[in-house]
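Preliminary data (for renewal application), 3-thiaglutaryl-CoA complex.
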Amino acid sequence: MSMTQVKTASVFGTVDLTGLDGQLSEPERQLVREVRTMVDEHIRPNIAGWYERAVFPREIVPEMAKLGLLGMHLQGYGCAGRSAVDYGLAASELEAGDSGLRTFVSVQGSLAMSAIHKHGSEEQKQTWLPGMAKGEIIGCFGLTEPTAGSDPASMATHAVRDASGDWVLNGAKRWIGLATIADVAIIWAQTGEPGDARGVRGFIVPTNTPGFTAVAIEPKLSMRASVQCDITLADVRLPAEAILPEDSAIGLKGPFACLNEARYGIIWGAMGAARDSFDEVLRYSGERLQFGTPLSGFQLTQAKLADMALEINKGYLLALQIGRAKDAGTLDPTMISVGKLNNCREAIKIAREAREMLGGNGITLDYSPLRHANNLESVRTYEGTDEIHTLILGRKLTGIGAFTASGK
Ligand code: TGC
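Predicted structure:
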């Protein structure tokens, strides 16, 4: 029996059965190598400890900033101005390390910085973005609430303008990444009648504003090397210029435009976690002998590896198609739902399968697949659950919205 493993020069590794590598330019491959080196040097040696102790390693932020990963696809204001595909490739490498670390880049760049970049005034951009790109200012993005998750239109947080012209915010947000370590929060609040989606507006809230408090949600069984929080807003008083003034920010299309960016990164990130799970179990099954044979010599093992590789190749091809469309300006948000739904669903199956193939060893932190699978529980839930993305596709296909029992 041959134990030969096919050597590949592909940046995607052995799993590349479809010439994925050939779809990338040399600068794109170089970016993959750089981010992977950072992950190998700074994340892999420490991730099990961070995960076990449930700490977000702040010391990683300057390393990410050094590579231009914070707001990397934004133009100007100290941001790297890279392409959507570049951003996706970086997200994939980071999430091969851990979803929690990719989530940091996503919340900072795709949500908080993106909100200011898309919807902010020139002064707001100059004030906040350069420091955020350097990682000196950390941001968070408050949309979800304790009773408004999939349905942000039902948010209860409201902002009222008083006689002095100030805005006064009251309410609560939940599952907000980074809030306890953030210097600034983008808070979405109702300014009109309850339930009026077009009355939703975004506010830039320095987190040291009186009345703003954030508390980490713990203990968690997922995304442990990251921080998700409850925010309370009790008479948080802001000057008139704290509002995101652009027309693009009026109504829920404001936060949704940012969610598109974060959802896009997840399409790639989930495949990074899947690929790392695959690499781990491919290596293990080549070394682990049972009945005198490496596990990878068993047909059942090969069938599992082949199925995993099929889905990883399809997932990356999908991500690349969506990324190229984003760069070409032809992206429709429905395509993001296709990618987020498919790649999260397949990635979690792959991580779970890999855990099973590792046997008892798979339940320890010495191996990545169960950590990835646990993380992917969060990834498939935030930024639109499987159900929400399924219904977005259902609406696109049929023309009928089925988000509520009444069909609205
Ligand atoms: P509807 O209320 O009718 O639409 C409101 C406005 O938004 C527009 N829109 C979009 N625009 C751009 N991109 C998208 N993907 C958009 N989706 C909707 C829409 O055209 C409309 O514009 P306008 O000009 O007419 O006012 O909403 P809908 O019927 O289109 O959508 C319904 C539904 C269920 C799909 C939507 O509500 C949805 O996507 N729900 C899921 C929300 C979600 O993903 N929540 C998770 C957020 S994650 C979080 O808050 C934590 S931050 C992450 C972290 O900190 O770690």
